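On clarity, I found the account of how folds are encoded harder to follow than it need be. For illustration, here is how one protein appears when written out as sequence plus structure tokens:

:::
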Amino acid sequence: MLGVSVSGAPFLEGRDTCATDDLNFPSGGMHGYNTVYWGFLPDEGDSGGTKTHMSTINGNTGKQASTYGWYSQITTLPYDGSQLLDSDLMNDVVSSGAVFVPAIMPTNVKFADITEDVGTQIAEVLEQYTSKNVEVWLRFAHEVNCYVSAACSGQSSPIYAGRSQAEYITAWQNVHAAIASNPKIFMFWSPNSDSPSDLSGWWPGANYVDIVGMDVYPDSSQSPTFASVYGPFYDTFAAGYNKHFAIGETRSKEGDVGSKEAWVKQLADTDVSAYPCYISATWFEYQKGSQDFRIIQGQSAATIQETLSNFA
């Protein structure tokens, strides 16, 4: 499909655009009063927290989460997707009825290793979900602009071994080619917080992206709003390229209740008439060591009630 960029030049669009309504959230799925759908990244239990199922979160909210995030690392090739094909996870995802939003991370291979064959391996893993009528938004190599840097990764070496923007874009396009024939898989470009100009070199191209978003954990001392945190990115990549905007993962930088609840309120109360491409947000429902970023699990009844007051 031909579109027009912010500069007025024509460009090719991905399969889904902001102007269409082809994304399949669960009927009656959790959403804010602003109609933005809401979901969670349940704690995997590998960072000091307790492994959590979406069925448990849904039981504690009395609502049906609309999105279900998870992580899978490519550490060896061929990619077998064992983290995603775990029967316990798959059963929970399927029964939840949520859109599945897996982040597949090339952590021990280079971008140049993600060939068309590896793209096919990824597609075959995800087809195990779509064959069960689960819609999948693939966050391939999410936060790439951060994870190619040791300093940003917070480790002695980068989380992603391949650092070249050109090789990353080729890898992305190889994965896109493999999933393009499956109408239930969408490519979700989800870099880490940065300026549009700094992110432009990581942009895979409008014809290869279906959904855009940016991972941000805002500092409450800056009184963050949707406009201040996401505005420039939204204007450039969502409105500019006519793409749906979704938040692949977010939390407050701090783990205190006040900061968490203020940020939830901002996201669930954003005026979508000003941001019509904004469709969903997925909360990082994790406990990491002494920091508790959760807004449902392990929270007091008062905190849960405050959280749920933001949702219809």
